[in-house]
Structures are given as structure tokens and as C-alpha cells.
Amino acid sequence: xxxxxxxxxxxxxxxxxxxxxxxxxxxxxxxxxxxxxxxxxxxxxxxxxxxxxxxxxxxxxxxxxxxxxxxxxxxxxxxxxxxxxxxxxxxxxxxxxxxxxxxxxxxxxxxxxxxxxxxxxxxxxxxxxxxxxxxxxxxxxxxxxxxxxxxxxxxxxxxxxxxxxxxxxxxxxxxxxxxxxxxxxxxxxxxxxxxxxxx
Length: 199
Known about the structure:
By secondary structure, this protein is of the alpha+beta class. It has one domain (10-171). It contains 5 helices and 5 strands, in the order βαββαααββα. It has helices at 25-47, 83-86, 98-116, 126-129, 163-171; strands at residues 10-12, 62-71, 74-82, 144-146, 160-161. The longest helix is centred in the N-terminal third of the chain and has 23 residues, at 25-47.
């Protein structure tokens, strides 16, 4: 594997025991990619108070790509990549923005950790918490994602997102983001009368 691993979340639960990823879980990582970009922009603006906007092309073409799924339940190894590096018409300083994405990853991990330690996130813009309406949405009751998992030393972190953590994150914002969950509804219909259109 030639790509440098950017983040390697460990997914635990019955659906991941065969070291694969259900397709609907990839939606969660799409939302994580969006959150990384927003947090990276916020960090850039905080560190550069003289700027009102991020530089042109700050996140153009930057994306996460799944490079491997390892065993240990399922460990999804993602590299961060950029189309700009391959076909650059933008200034070279835009290629140095990867450091902001590293910092964004660390910030997201620390927010999930803080909630698991019993603290509410304070340093994060509350609008960013709304991204957790999509991240973790497809987890089942027995499943979790460890965003801070260290795949090289195979050690877990406290940045574990499960249904309970996700709910705390979504309800911790000032605007109390709506909490949405996937549910299954089962019903028993004892009689259907097609003639009278009743059941």
C-alpha cells in the first residue's frame, strides 16, 4: 500500500466481524469527509485572523479514499488525497493545506473523546455538530466506530462513536440539533378486506 494512512477508524459490531464494510456505512464516511473540510477551514481562519476567507482552492479536489480494510473487526484505512497534486493549476501554497486537515482530524477525535469523558464540546462551532446527524446514523445498537484507533500499535482510544455518543453530540448544541435515528417498524395485520378496502 503506497498511500499514507490519514485515519483508520475501527468499526466494531456483528456486521464487521467478517472484516468487511456494509455499503450504507460509507455514507457516514462521506459526512466525515465534509466535516473534515469544514473544521479545516475553521482552523485556518482561527490561525489567520487577518483573513476573512480561506484561500481560493483551499479544499478543491481534496477527498478521503478508502485504501484498505484490515482485520480486527473492520479497520477502514483512509488516505487523504488531492486531485490538485496531480493536475495543479493552483498556487503551490494550496498544497500545504494538508496540515489543516491533520489538525481537523485531531479536533474531531478530541470532540468525540470529550463527550465520552462526560464533557460537552465547547471549542467547536455548534453548527459542525449537525454533521453527526449523518456520521454514525447507520450504526446498529451493538456497533461503534473508534475514530482515534491507532492501527500500527493496535490500541483503542476513547474517541468511540456509538448511538449513545452520537445522541449526546447532537443534543449538546445550543440549537439542540434534531436527533434522527433509523428504526424498523413491525406490525401485525390480522385481516385485509380488499372488497371493502379495509384492514
